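Hi everyone, sorry if this is the wrong subforum. Our group has a chain we'd like a structural model of before ordering constructs, and none of us has done structure prediction before. Sequence below.
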Amino acid sequence: MKLQNMFGVVLWSDSAAQKAVIWCEDQGDLAFYTPGDGSIHDAPSLDAGDLIQFDMSIQKNVRKATNPQLLMQSHSPDLPEKLRQEGQAASTPAAPEWANSKPAAVVELSSYFRQPQPQKLACNG
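Answer:
Right subforum, don't worry. Here is the predicted structure as tokens:
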């Protein structure tokens, strides 16, 4: 079992069961996290929209996340709703070719990884 280091955004979580579904940076299949999956430390509390880094492995064709590290809490709290809206827009019947309908926008995960630029502070002394 080969581990791959990955970044992702939590799409869904159950705090009571400490489970989460994660959208991965490589735009592949979603990863699933449960603390019983071999975590080496206490798991952080994960909420939808949290930006995390984790180890990913594939077990029986399912991506499993282990050892999640919270990088930024509430980084993209609106992401699950945006994806839900885009999915609904994509599942509506296609307009005829002659209609100038706009295709559903693609939500790129990479745009959610842009971290705020560090602020420079002046020190006197």
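For your construct planning: The chain has a mean pLDDT of 77. Residues 4-72 form a domain with the OB fold (Dihydrolipoamide Acetyltransferase, E2P) fold (CATH 2.40.50.140).
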